[in-house]
Specification:
Distance between the termini: 50 Å
CATH topology of the largest domain: DHBP synthase
Radius of gyration: 20 Å
Largest sheet: 10 strands, mixed
Number of helices: 10
Strand order of the largest sheet: 7-1-2-6-3-5-4-8-9-10
CATH superfamily of the largest domain: DHBP synthase
CATH architecture of the largest domain: Alpha-Beta Complex
Order of helices and strands: HEEHEHEHEHEHEEEHEEHEEHEH
Helix content: 25-40%
CATH class of the largest domain: Alpha Beta
Structural class: alpha/beta
Length: about 325
């Protein structure tokens, strides 16, 4: 068992789920806020706890690919190929739903999002529960995702009946989402599994999502956002802008990929890992730390353009959306 999660803890979590209550649990990407996906009233509690719009669908987590048939009406060859390669793992597949899937899970769409998580605690929970667990990230809607059990407790307090502590999430950003419900597999949300890796399995280029693509988690323009306004800044300009804002009486927080902190009062400085995997792993914990620092603005060094930073850039671009006007 990972961390302090015992068989008794898993049994209690299963009982909570079967009672129609919520369980927060670790996956390799972020922590999920889960409910029995077949229990409509329980699923509604997820939306209520998060303050999530009812048309914003949830991801159903299952123990293995065999359970796909319980949720999906059609499983095309592309979905089988991706599942074989990347499950358990940080990949969500969108498929045509079958008639038994509640509208509350799918946001009223004719598709359902499915994932087999790789975290050992998630696997133990799913195997003991035996069904699907509908689980978005365990945070208030639109805010910074939770990557530790402590983040979940900070976010929800006693509102979540059971929190399984599996340690810090390994990946740190949400799963890659691929739509396999149409004619051509389509990337809906970037994640740690890159488009290039997916295309190598599929043997065809991924299509680009358009207005007709299914709605899925984490694709609104503003998302993953701290309460403090956030700005993306080219690396060589971070210190210059920080000095300018401090001179204006602003309190500044900075997330940069260097440990060389400038000598400046009124500046909170967090040195992030210089590699994409390390940066992603620490990203949400760092944003939460800076959000709690009582500053007027968070400056984040713009990530590189390289492929392995693609999903990180996506999260940061959404986190900055709408922040600029807050500094005027």
């Amino acid at each position: 068992m990972t961390h302090n999660v015992s068989k008794d803890d898993i049994a209690r979590a299963v009982a909570v789920l079967k009672d129609g209550e919520l369980v927060a649990f670790p996956t390799e990407t972020v922590y999920g806020l889960g409910a029995d996906a077949s229990n409509v009233e329980a699923v509604r509690k997820v939306y209520a706890a998060k303050g999530r719009p009812a048309d914003h669908p949830l991801i159903v987590h299952v123990a293995d690919a065999v359970q796909l048939a319980n949720w999906a009406g059609e499983i095309p060859p592309a979905a089988h190929a991706l599942a074989k390669k990347y499950w358990p793992g940080p990949l969500t597949l969108v498929l045509k739903r079958n008639a038994r899937v509640p509208d509350e899970v799918t946001g009223g769409q004719d598709t359902v999002a499915l994932r087999v998580p790789g975290h050992p605690v998630a696997q133990q929970l799913l195997r003991a529960f035996g069904g699907g667990i509908a689980a978005p990230s365990a945070n208030r809607f639109g805010r910074v995702s939770a990557t530790t059990a402590e983040h979940v407790r900070e976010e929800f307090g006693d509102a979540v009946a059971c929190v399984l502590d599996g340690g810090a999430a390994d990946v740190g950003i949400e799963s890659t989402i691929v739509d396999c419900s149409g004619a051509v597999p389509t990337l809906l949300r970037p994640g740690w599994i890159t488009p290039q890796q997916l295309e190598a399995v599929l043997g065809v280029p991924l299509a680009v999502a358009d207005a007709a693509a299914p709605r899925v988690s984490g694709t609104l323009e503003k998302h993953y956002a701290p309460r403090t306004p956030l700005m993306l800044v080219e690396g060589d300009l971070v210190v210059e802008l920080a000095r300018s804002l401090v001179r204006q009486g602003k309190r500044v927080a900075a997330l940069v990929r260097t440990a060389l902190r400038p000598l400046m009062d009124g500046l909170v400085w967090v040195a992030a890992p210089d590699d994409a995997a390390g940066f992603a792993h620490d990203l949400y914990a760092n944003l939460r730390e800076l959000d709690q620092a009582g500053c007027d603005v968070i400056l984040v060094e713009q990530p590189p353009e390289r492929a392995e930073w693609f999903a990180i850039r996506d999260r940061l671009n959404r986190a900055t959306a709408g922040s600029g006007e807050d500094l005027d």
